[in-house]
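Figure 3 (text version): structure tokens given as input.
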């Protein structure tokens, strides 16, 4: 097998590629988990917002296959934005790339998570969806059991708490500044 830095002997190619795949999967799922953790309040707001009640009722009334189509549209449309955002970052456009990553992730997670919670039982009646769901659950459990992953997940949880505290502090400071400017 040939790589830019040289040839990897045949007996090492498989373990190297397997390790690289595992590292990529861990980083990918940790990124999704971190972003989802930060977006959970947004998903909750969308779920409780009265503006979205007709959409919620419509989504609940759909059959399993139309629900699957609606569920897959944001995934298929927005998942390619991650490598595109990474490419923008790698080509010296970090703010544009970061914006693409964040916006795509916010929309994808908000829409997909809401649809998943609304229609999980309905989607699991589709054999192919149930099969993929089982496989992904097994994969995630195996990834979570790998050495170092629990510590990484704990670190991601602490990072999430830090980011949420920073946002809360910034919000409180903005409120105090606004109140301070109003008083003569």
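Below: residues designed for each position.
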């Amino acid at each position: 097998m040939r790589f830019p830095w040289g040839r990897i002997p045949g007996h090492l190619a498989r373990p190297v590629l397997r390790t690289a795949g595992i590292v990529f999967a861990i980083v990918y799922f940790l990124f999704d988990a971190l972003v989802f953790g930060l977006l959970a309040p947004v998903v909750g707001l969308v779920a409780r917002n009265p503006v979205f009640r007709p959409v919620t009722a419509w989504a609940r009334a759909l059959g399993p296959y139309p629900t699957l189509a609606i569920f897959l549209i944001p995934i298929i449309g927005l998942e390619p934005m991650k490598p595109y955002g990474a490419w923008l970052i790698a080509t010296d456009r970090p703010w544009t790339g970061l914006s693409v990553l964040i916006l795509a992730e916010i929309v994808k997670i908000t829409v997909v998570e809401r649809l998943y919670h609304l229609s999980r039982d309905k989607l699991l009646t589709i054999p192919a969806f149930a099969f993929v769901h089982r496989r992904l659950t097994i994969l995630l459990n195996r990834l979570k059991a790998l050495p170092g992953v629990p510590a990484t997940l704990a670190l991601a949880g602490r990072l999430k708490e830090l980011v949420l505290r920073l946002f809360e502090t910034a919000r409180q400071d903005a409120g105090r500044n606004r109140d301070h400017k109003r008083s003569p």
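The chain has one domain: 15-178.
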